[in-house]
Amino acid sequence: MTISSVFLRLRLKLKQAVKNFCQSLSNNNIRTIGPELIFGTLFDRIGFNAVEAELFRHIVIARLVYPTSKLKTVDYLMRYQGKTIAVDAIYRFLDKLSDTYKETVEKIAFDYTKGRLKNISVVFYDMTTLYFEAEDEDDLRRIGFSKDGKFQNPQIMLGLLVGEEGCPIGYDIFEGNTFEGHTLLPVLKGIQEKYGLKKPILIADAALLSKNNLNNLSALGYEFIIGARIKNESLEIREEILEKTRGLKDGQGIAIKKAGGTRLIVTYSDKRQKKDANNRKRGLEKLKVRIKSGRLTKENINNRGYNKFLALQGSIAVEIDEDKIKEDEAFDGLKGYITNTRLKPDKIVENYSHLWQIEKAFRISKTDLKIRPIYHYRKKRIEAHILIAFVAYTIYKELETGFRQ
Asked: Which domains does the chain have, with CATH numbers?
């Protein structure tokens, strides 16, 4: 027998052995180890394995890999993990999840962020709405102003606080018709007091800009940088803004002292100037089409969007108000910030520019993790759903950095 014939017989035996092995396999024998290998490793690294409930681990990883309904989660666990779990068992677990593990989970996420950033000196806050595929309201699910455009659906409000790089710090949920400006202080104070966090500089967009918020933040010793609506300032302030910003070059800014020890910082950007001009041009073009169609009435004369450029001519005719356009053009390229810090304008702009991190956090939660729409109607299950998404987002952020030694 030659060497080549021996190798041929061995190859044939190996091929037959592989064939027999594969034929003996069923779907129940096949496992997808990638999700557990990657997300499970990160789950442990962050410290969420301190929650001893195995079902918590499975639900979180399923949210990252196969974000859908809890019924589909059961199917995923069976098909890819070989775990036979009844959907009722998941719902019973959700009913006790928030009360049993919420504080532990939030502390783990906070410690993760603190360890990663070393020093939490700046925090970013924003609020979004999460709607339900249901019509009925209750004490939590209420119809309110929807950022998702689902004005007929009941919703809840989610306030999220993150650090630099979008690292999670904490969150809270509110009734769906809560005024956005009333959500900031409860979240900020609660987390600061719970974890002994030294008062950081708060950064938020203009939606949180209110006299009460600014006064309360200052009274509690918080420093802040909040987006300003410079076109809504008094006539005196607007005139001062235009006078002091005349001739500014790209990246330059001015400061105006305001009451309560705050400053209004206004900067100019060539890029913003082009964006403002282009947006107005497109808005006006749409308005002109609507005017020409004859479908505009006096009910359209309001301050929403580019309708602010409309005016009534005589008793029935609607036309473009050219004076309002010129007034608007004067502010092209200008962006305002209200602050009680002593930071220089360039540092204020630099810090505020990172606000996109929290916008990204909401985008990840709504698209990749599919946090909404929400199908639960019991409060405890809604709270559990948000908690699971918060943990999944924390793991997602760790994944972005890669595996660190």
From this structure: 27-112+379-395 (no CATH), 120-269+333-374 (3.90.350.10), 272-329 (no CATH)
